[in-house]
Design a protein that fits this description.
By secondary structure, the protein is α/β, with parallel strands linked by helices. The protein contains 26 helices and 24 strands. The strands form seven sheets. Strands 2-1-3-12-4 form a five-stranded mixed β-sheet. Strands 16-13-17-24-18 form a five-stranded mixed β-sheet, with helices on both faces. It has a five-stranded mixed β-sheet with strand order 21-20-22-19-23. Strand 6, helix 6 and strand 7 form a beta-alpha-beta unit. The longest helix is centred in the C-terminal third of the chain and has 34 residues. It is elongated, with a radius of gyration of 37 Å. The N terminus is likely disordered.
Length: 691
Amino acid sequence: MRRASIAVVLIMIAMLALPLGQAAAQDPSEDVPRVRLARATWDTGWFQAEVYRLLLERLGYRVDGPVTMDNAQFYEAVAAGEVDLWANGWFPAHEVFIADTAPVSRVGTAVDDGALQGYFVDAATAATHRIFNLGDLADPAVAALFDHDGDGRADLVGCNVGWSCAATIDHHLEAYGLTGTVEQVQGDYSPLITETIDRFRSGQPVLYFTWTPNWTVGELVPGSDVVWLETPFPSLPPDQAAALDRTAIAGIDGCAHDPCQTGWPPNDIRAVANSDFLDANPSVRTLLEQVVIPLADISAQNVRMVTLGGDPSDIRRHAEEWVAANAALVNRWITAADPDAIGLDDTAGDAAEAGGTLSVAARSLPPFVIYENRTYSGFEVELVQLVAAKLGMSAEIYAVDTVAKQVDDISRGVAQVGLGGVAVTESREEVVDFSLPVLDSGLTILVLNQSSRGLVDRIAAFFRAIASSDLPWLLVVFGIAVLVAAHLIWWLERHNNPDFATPYRRGIWDSFYWSVVTMSTVGYGDKVARGTKGRVLALLWIGLGTLVFASFTAAIASSLAVNELRSEISGPSDLVGRRVATATHSAGEAYLPSIGVGPVLVDDIEDAYPLLLDGEVDAVVFDAPVLQFHAAREGAGEVGTVGADFQRVQYGLMLSEDDPELQERIDLALLDLVESGIYQRLHDAWFGASP
């Protein structure tokens, strides 16, 4: 009876648990509101799309996408309710895509009047031929300067088919009477503009269209590398006619006049959404109405994206960093849209309210600190920007050349932080403090790739091997011995042997010939000693000469063998007896003498790379991240690192001994970045995922 009762109870529990289990099996995300996000085909706008995605997620939405669409495709899809919004609307350029009755709304203004467009020509050609106006290309002789395909018309690199700018360029060519001398080159913009930049670097004339924000203005800098081409007069397609009075823009670098008649009105970058979706989601509308992303931030991200290759994870990380760096502002946007939304970490928002500037002295050392196109990037640069954001500060970075200068600036209070791959050493700890380690690595060895050595390099290496051996001294001994033997045989044989002519000026050359061939081949028989004394000398010279020639041959073989062995370096034990370069005051300088290697010291590790390529050293020893970055970028195909890392090295941010409070705050910020996973994503982006 008791067992039956227990069975009944178990059955009842199971029956009650069934609907609970079914409820638990339901996907809770189905109750979360969704946003179907799109993005433009130009990758310079993907950063904004990722920022909007993060903001919508903080607001409590599940974001599908972003899915890439061209202009016409997006505006058709958003009007039909197939997608909800994107962040890449350009106005007035995109007005042509929106019908008066379409349920499409322009929401907020992320960039106000900052999106510029126009035509550019390289500064050298412009100055030489006085080309400062698009109308100058009506002259066939001027247009021929930019004719790369041989069809008699200038090749103007323009926009992809379907972009609104493509129609405007065609309109301009028609309006200014240029259809007979100028052709808009269309295709995939990215490879076309990359080809244009390569053409510029090779010294050829270039003519192209571009816009801001865009990485191209960092590669070909207006006012320095290129100049704007003004248009003869304002002219726009009918759908943009209302903006005709806005095509002359003041304050543009690289333009012949101010204001500059660019021919294009400045565009606002705005979010565009389905109107019905916004009505159903008023919090999204409120959020979009507030978002502002500085043009300078977008441009800086575009340069970083292209410099580092622009993996999708990089772009997402850049957006995450921007949101974290603007935590207080983002929290205000989200709270205004929905007071109950999760927002960001409250501590980050509170810190951001503190304000202030973190002064950073940076020493260029890729990949820790990279300075290109007047922009700082690199692992430690991005890390210190994240730290500053955690402290509610902005990082103000300036360049120094040496660690000594960094130490001095920090000691004097000019800088608060020093960075640039500074290893934590005992000597440095005596004058400055360090943060928690920001990277744990070691030393590695950089060598020349044998596969990259061509015939000329091998011949040069042969002569370097000879020059660095005992062979030059043996050559001197060989030459002296040959001359002595030549004079002796001439003196002994000159009177009774016609093979050794007189006078001295004629006979010495015959004697020199005899001396060489007797030593090397035991004589050809065409010149022989006939006197007793001459024959005795010949016998002695044959024996002695054989030894001299054998030593000479052995020296050559030994030099070549040593030269080949020098390339077989696979670890620290192979460095003994080699010529090894490293930088002064580095961990490499401290380590190499401990294994019996007297290093070739250079002031900057960059100076060691030419020594390796020229064969003046056999290897370079330095911090692993630096040499690995060089081998993967500038030295790709020519040099490579070998063996496992050795001699542990830790890197930290240099801090003042007089400000323990700042050191504690920076250490806490670093710990927060580690615990949140942001540090790991940054590390993997620069150095790859740990095995």
